[in-house]
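agent: user wants the structure for Sialate O-acetylesterase from Algoriphagus ratkowskyi. delegating to structure tool.
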Amino acid sequence: MKFRKHLILFAFLINSLAIATAFCQELTFTEAPENYRLYARNQNDSAEVRYTGKVTKGEDVSSLTLKVYKDDVLHEIQEVPLIDKAFSITSKIYAGLHQFRFELFTLEGQKESMYMVADNVVCGDAYIITGQSNSHPSSTLSTYSSPFARSFGVKTGYEPYSEEDKNVRWGSATGNCPGLEKEVGGWFIKNPHGVGVWGMELARLIIEKHQVPVCIINGGSGSSSIEENMLYPELPSLETSFGRLAYRVNQAGLKDQVKAIFWHQGETNTNTVEGYQSYPANFDTLKKDWERVYTGVEKIYLFQLHPGCGAKTEGYYNELREIQTQLADTYENVEIMSTMGVSGHDGCHFSYQGYLEFAERIFPLVSRDFYGEQPTSVITPPKLLSAKYVSENEVELTFDQVIAVEEKREANGKMYFLKDQFFFKKELDSAFVSAKISSIKSQGNKLILILEKAGSYPFVTYLPGKFYTGTDEFYEGPWLTGSANSLGALSFHQRPINPF
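agent: tool returned. relaying tokens verbatim.
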């Protein structure tokens, strides 16, 4: 408590000094650090902190002195003379769980005066999360905070970015939000420095395991379609979700240094034929805009949707999920993660614990891609590679890894079986046909579907779109999973079956 009081007193004294000196001198900056700023580290694990500008008032100012403290220990001193009233000072800081303080002094005659202080500055990695509601859940249970987890600005969703919002700069990231009364929610609440539950958990995992500070900027908008996330004019506009996010990232000085974008979106696009059919082209446009605006992006991580969460009883859920898998196959820098089997699903959103699972699932991929971790087991969800008849009534599904079968699961007092979650078609985009499976068996990375009767069905689908067949109960398993990682297999739709 005494230490906290001393910090408050110190801040008061610094502000008083700055006000006092401002009457006799003034510096205009084109670059300067800010309190709580995260500088993105470069390939040398460092970043340059710059002061550039001019002295616009104070005829007797002859030089500037910069004192840099690392974890409250004096780390560096630089004295820089003025040239035609201009100055340029550069200090290098290194990534790690360290906080830096920058104190800038002016020298007038023999009098040295503190002009400004930037405290709690760190060097680390920057990421973006965006999409619709499942990209930015808040929770009253999300109490984790860290001096090394940062964010910038206000997550506004659809609301305008006001002048008051513009005054919100750097701060500590949070998974909670103002005025939240329910355990999970906040889909449409303005949230300064809000990164969402799983964004906060991802930051925690990176900080604790890899010892690197993290900035996450979340631009999610509840219920938004992909079209509403795309609207980006050539000049940045605060009238669009894309524009508001780009404004925040640019103001943070991270426009060219975001490592990856995490994308959870698609539920709204399951409602219409046009919504899902235009998705591949729209994602291509969105991806190009991301890479044009955020030039440092190396990876895009997208989540395949869980069954459910669409306005229509009979929406295009299978179709959209299949498209998401195809997008990951189309683009080399796009990685996909399954949400199948994530706990606490309520038909659209997830429990606090379920959102923690989002971070736990994607974290190994991030560790592999950005922190040099070599996986010792499979870290991706099972993906179907091929399907073929091996006899007149047996279909062999081959996956990219060894699989595990959850044969049955009880939901709402009724038992459901995995063998009943595979569906067949005679023609593309036609109705499913009645083709019952008597049993299933797994053999390493293969799953054998044994039909009750011999038949020739050219296409197979795994999982219902939204509900258990013939019910209005949201699908919650059983699941096909990876044997080594328990990740739910990616669903697939209308995949061709090679004939016997």
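agent: one observation worth passing along. The CA atoms of residues 178 and 191 lie 7 Å apart.
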